[in-house]
Amino acid sequence: MSIVFRDVREHELDSVLALNNAAGPTILPFDQARLRHFFETAEYFRVAERDGTLAGFMIGVGSDAAHDSSNYRWFRERYPHFFYIDRIVVASRRRGGGVGRAFYADAQSYAELRYPQLACEVFLDAAADPTLPDPALLFHGSFGFREVGQQLMPETGLRAAMLMKDLCSYPWVRDTYGEALPAEPWLIVPRTARTPQRATGTGA
């Protein structure tokens, strides 16, 4: 069956938490309070559903978000306007089946209408074999990301490669539509715009 992408639902948060914390060293764990913060404030918090089951999730925020990640702050200090992918997790049984690449395509289709750049990071110290090229860097490189720096995360001691991708459609969209995008069903409305009451969450 095809992969269906949609906004996360509140009753799915326990499953998302379990999926995140079972993902291994490439994904930082979080607790219920931080997950709730993302649910209440993240501009993009979507799940992938395949065969009626949760296949993964992705969380993203814009460059004006109240986000306390040191990697996010690294980008904020250097770039004025971008969309940041905080994390993507694919269920172990679904890895290698195209869910991750489809997620990045979904996130880009959202971001390129609103931001000139897409940002994320890869943990370099989490590679299974540090003597070999990191497959995560290969994956991101094949999707158009380039490394723009590295940082040693103060809260974890992990070294991260900081990646950016220019979104070539953004200048045309900005010059043609400004911030008034057409009211078309295929244009994903930001979660925080649809549910403004969720914009008051505090960080964990």
UniProtKB/TrEMBL annotation:
Source species: Lysobacter hankyongensis
Pfam families: Acetyltransf_1
Protein name in the entry: GNAT family N-acetyltransferase
UniProt feature coiled coil, ranges: none
Domain spans labelled N-acetyltransferase: 3-169
TM annotation in the entry: none
